Structure prediction request, 148 residues.
Amino acid sequence: MTCDHPKSRNAKMCRACNLKAMWADPEFRARKAAANAQTLRKLRTDPAFVERERARQSRAVRIMNASPRKTDPNVIARRGRTFSERRMAWCPPHLRDEYFRLMKNKHLPALEARKVIEAHIRDEARRNIRAIEREQHERQRREIAQAY
Ligand SMILES: [Zn+2]
Prediction:
């Protein structure tokens, strides 16, 4: 594999594309996961590490508990809305239920469901254009009829 990004001499791919390609390889991922698990197993036999980790985690819990606004239902709801507004920006709000229905009830993968919705969006656009054209023709016809 090669890429067209700026890269060091003799390299086939830039650093970003190379990393992406490496992490796309299931064997590489498995090797990394095994190495991480082994490191963690070894660290857990070290009392100093266990103590440090316990202190770090209880610090994190204290920080989380000190900011109750993050657990406020209104804040959680707003965060959900902001998230779907960004993630779902491609999908008009009135078609979102249908998109989720396709995935949940029809078991379509997200990409397939999105294609269905996008075809629907195109259909709607075509229908709207035809309706506008009909309206314009109708108005012209009335104007011509009134002129006499
Ligand atoms: Zn690249």
Remarks:
- The chain is about 75% helix and 0% strand.
- The helical segments are 15-23, 26-43, 47-66, 73-87, 96-104, 110-147.
- The CA atoms of residues 22 and 80 lie 33 Å apart.
- Residues 110-147 form the longest helix (38 residues).
